[in-house]
Structure prediction request, 104 residues.
Amino acid sequence: MKCNGEPMRFKVAAFICFLMLTSATPAEVLYLDNQPASAVAVKINQVNRKQIRFADPAAAKKIINGRFMTDHPASFVRALKSIYRDIQVTETKDGWIVATRKKR
Prediction:
């Protein structure tokens, strides 16, 4: 058995090669400069089972800057929450729901 032209000697190595060759979308680094949170979430959601959803347009329009890995959605959600005091995040089994807090 070969992986990328190299002979495979161990079953574990063959399995790792299989995982590498069959991954749907590789992770990438997103460099953000005044991007709306919803546009960034679309890109992050493409490579993750856990999805980022927005409960309202105000939360989706929040602008964000920085560098994020597409395969670490939790770090993006944490950044949104720490940057904007009016953001509320609810974690579910399927991902996160991002919303603006109701004003009292």
User: Anything to note?
Assistant: The first strand starts at residue 2 and ends at 3.
